Amino acid sequence: MRNSIEFLKIFERLKRILKKYDKKFKVVVNNEFSISYYGGYSAKFKQDLYFGGTEIKKNYVSFHLMPVYMYQELIDSIPEILKNRMQGKSCFNFKKFDEPLFKELELFTEKAFSVFKERGENVTAINK
């Protein structure tokens, strides 16, 4: 399934959600099956902070959004339509292309970015 046309289509759409943050984060992994975004070093967490990414897995395409794990107010505000796609505390899984669902995820990712930035988690233009 990893190479299925459907999964590749989902993966490309999820990458577009993250693309707008190219200048805000460091892209650490970027290949045909995975992309990962990291912020700068956080003294609070004593490491570079993982913001999010997407990856084609064997049976689904995952979208990770770490601020959901970090901030309770985001957990409490996850749209109901996205909660059905959650696995764990910060991962959303998709098996079918669903543009309205992806639009909702895009809006929620913007909200997560705003909270991440507000909290001062060293969100600076580090990707040059």
Explain this structure.
The structure is a single chain. It is built from 5 helices and 6 strands; from the N terminus they run H-E-E-E-E-H-H-H-E-E-H. With 128 residues, it is an alpha+beta fold. It has a 6-stranded antiparallel beta sheet with strand order 1-2-3-4-6-5. Strand 3 and strand 4 form a beta hairpin. Helix 1 runs parallel beside helix 5. The longest helix is centred in the last third of the chain and has 20 residues, at 99-118. Residues 124-128 have low confidence and may be disordered.
Strand tally is 6
Order of helices and strands: HEEEEHHHEEH
The chain-level structural class is: alpha+beta
Q: What is the count of helical runs?
A: 5
What portion of residues is helical? 25-40%
Alpha-carbon Rg, integer: 14 Å
Beta-strand portion reads 25-35%
Main sheet: strands, sense, barrel: 6 strands, antiparallel
Keywords:
5 helices, 6-stranded antiparallel β-sheet, alpha+beta, disordered C terminus, 128 residues, globular, 27% strand
Write a short abstract of this structure:
With 128 residues, the protein is of the alpha+beta class. Helices cover 38% and strands 27% of the residues.
Q: Mind sketching the topology for me?
A:
Blueprint: H1 5-19, E1 26-30, E2 34-42, E3 47-56, E4 61-65, H2 66-70, H3 72-76, H4 80-83, E5 86-87, E6 91-94, H5 99-118
Antiparallel strand pairs: 1-2, 2-3, 3-4, 4-6, 5-6
Helix pairs in contact: 1-5
